Amino acid sequence: MKIILDKIHIPLQFLTSGNYSTVSSKFEKNNMLHVVDYNCYGSREALSKAAEAKRMGYKQKWLVLMNSTYYDIQFELENMEIRFDSDLKMVTSSLTIYDVFNTGFGKNGSLIMNYYGYWKSSEGNLVIDDSLNRYHQKSILSGVILTTSTVITNPYVNGTIEEYFQDMKPVDMISKFSYRIFQHFKEIHNFTHIQYSRDKWFGNDVGGFEDGVAKDVYEEITDMASTCALIKHSRVEFYDFVNPMYRFSSTFIFRNIGSYDLWKNEFLKPFTTTTWISILLVLTFLSAAVKITNWVETIYMRSRKSFSWLSAVLMTISIICQQGTSFLPTHLTSRFLFFILLTLSFLLYNYYTSSIVSALLNNKPRELTTFQDLIKSGLQLGIQMAPYTITIFETNMDVDIQCIRRLVFPKDREAHVWNVSDGIEKVRTGPYAYHMEAARAYEEIAKTFDAQAICEVSDKISLIPASYLSFLLKKDSQYRNLLKMSLRKMEETGIIHRYRQIWEGKKPPCFANAILLSVGLDQTFIAFFFLSIGYFMAILILVLERITFNSKMNRTILKSEN
């Protein structure tokens, strides 16, 4: 036996009943091979204590030496609390090695001793049978009875849990998705399944194990959860979360009719600053050219239509803005100059107006994205009565979240808690923000909202940001690795993806080309603002001109009287 142990390059710890209490504290920290000589006094007691203390999991390696036959060993170990994931090797008197585990101690399971290998003394080698990996050797749980917990939030359930979960209605979507995945897990490993239902996933304490499914799993009332649950850093210490697979978010749904920034100037955007400066310089040059041409035609060509520098500027602006002017040139030079101006205005005007219309129609209103935005928006707030929402309100003391809680549960009025259909209807008629599971909301929105309302739907403000839910087991559960491997195989073969397509609701697409878009006053405010300034300046100049004119007339009258 010393030769065999010398071949294994793992730290050794020889265990007896006398030193068990000292050694057991090191089990979690060291990757040791614990060797028990079953022929020594107290060895059976030491091994039993280790099994009762759940120190025979996958993290600890055990080698038990017994001067007995296969059946004697089986008789000795069948009443010990050996785990399903144990790494326990038994060496018989003939140096045959067996891999020993129990499919479910206390769960109608049975002790299994799989042939592992033998010591070939003639060659001095350890021969291991690697034809089957440990997953396949431990894949059958026939006769084992496992208990699980799931969540049903719907208080009106008729019939059994299984009948309820077979229903395809979009209620308790997380549990219905999980149920189908767990059924595949059950069929793969052929165990019997007893399922209990709770009304919530976690309690309100740090680890969440004071209530709900988490309490059942933590106190080992059930072996695992058959529903997915949310991973949080405060829970990782107490639970194992296996294979994140269901995308979940809890969000406020509302129509973002929104508002536009009144001072956001869309009318300068079609051209860059350099282009605008270039246009001003060209127009200044053309205004000067128009005036000089008119002066030459008046002096040397006897033209009767003379105008001032200001009139030349106004003519140039009118041609660019209106593509026309009241002045009709009579000579070839001025006609050619006006032709250049009209061509320039045609090109600039068409590009500018098309860009403006596109920008105004495609410009989306400012969207609410924070709790502060939601609180200040004036929207009425309501929620779906869901356990995770209440848990957040009771555990998260953030100022904004507590403000939302007070708006949902006002002291002097009825709480704003609605069922899904009523809540979504309030969102449709608006203005209203309703908090619920996003996947369920999308189902209702697709059925009841028209194309324009769908395009206005916003879901950016979440009490629970989008994350993936996982199956839940107690920390270091004996079935953790089995569930992990099985779910990974289901992921690779597309089974989980198929159920995601069915149960993970997707936001209905916005077909913007199917709706009539209108440009509101708030989008064109800046244009009307400049128009108002123009009118004000015109009236002010008119008043000043009138005052100046009256002053001149009075002086003229005084001079004539004198």
Automatic annotation (TrEMBL):
All copies of the Ionotropic glutamate receptor C-terminal domain together span: 273-378
Concerning Gene3D superfamilies, the annotation shows: Periplasmic binding protein-like II
How does this protein lie in the membrane?
A: Multi-pass membrane protein
**What SUPFAM superfamilies does the record tag this protein with?**
Periplasmic binding protein-like II
GO biological-process terms attached to the record: detection of stimulus involved in sensory perception
Membrane-spanning residues where? 276-295, 307-325, 337-361, 525-544
The organism's place on the tree of life at top rank: Eukaryota
Q: Which residues form the Ionotropic receptor 75a N-terminal domain?
A: 29-151
- Keyword vocabulary terms for this entry: Cell membrane, Glycoprotein, Membrane, Receptor, Transmembrane, Transmembrane helix
Please state where this protein is localized.
Cell membrane
GO cellular component terms attached to this protein's record: plasma membrane
A Pfam family that this protein carries is: Lig_chan
Annotated family: Belongs to the glutamate-gated ion channel (TC 1.A.10.1) family.
**UniProt name for this protein:** Uncharacterized protein
Q: Which organism is the protein's source?
A: Cryptolaemus montrouzieri
